[in-house]
Amino acid sequence: MAGRLRKVVDERFYVSSAKGGGMLRREIWVDGAGRVARYNLAYINPLIYPRDNGRVLGYDTAHGRQHRHFKGKVRPVHLGRFEQIEAQFQKEWSRLAKEAKHAKD
Predict the structure, then answer these.
(1) What does the pLDDT read at residue 2?
(2) Other CB atoms closer than 10 Å to residue 70's CB: what's the count?
């Protein structure tokens, strides 16, 4: 990751309680060529998991490697391109939020 990275996405989306509640966090940095060089994707819902600042699920590149957080456990991931990781994150957090919604009903 030579050169400067530029943060191009810094978003927080709040998920309504009707859809399971919580917050989605997206941070994305790109290199000089516009390639994703660093990222942080997180689904935060302390009602599902109160530890780790409420982070139920996350994918990021902290410490120079891709890894997945799930309810306090961290494991390396080898999904390849960022688009694949983001799609996997989307699928997982949607399922978790849906399960949380049904648990409340």
Answers:
(1) 53
(2) 17
